[in-house]
Amino acid sequence: MAAFRLLVEVGREGMPAGEVARLLGVPHNTMSTHLAILTRAGLVTAQRDSRRMIHAARLEGLAELMGFLLRDCCGGRPELCAPLLAAALPDPQRSAPCCPDTRILA
User: Which of 3, 23, 33, 74 is most buried (CB neighbours < 10 A)?
Assistant: First the structure.
């Protein structure tokens, strides 16, 4: 989750896998495994840049996952998902609860 959050913050330009590992304090081979899983899940893209793999968050994949979970979460009982939908779709007049004014990279 931390790797995905970091890649979301970095934006579309992405970041080399080694840099993600370094910033998060994770061994390179472990991070490569995590990034490969996120790539297969459609949440991250990977582009080769010479000898490096540049990874970037795929927000469309996150939207697809969230849509799938929301469509399937209530088992025909929409009242079960009402609190989740209220949290996911905040009132536009107030700030989004998912976006505090802090940065992963200081």
Answer: 3
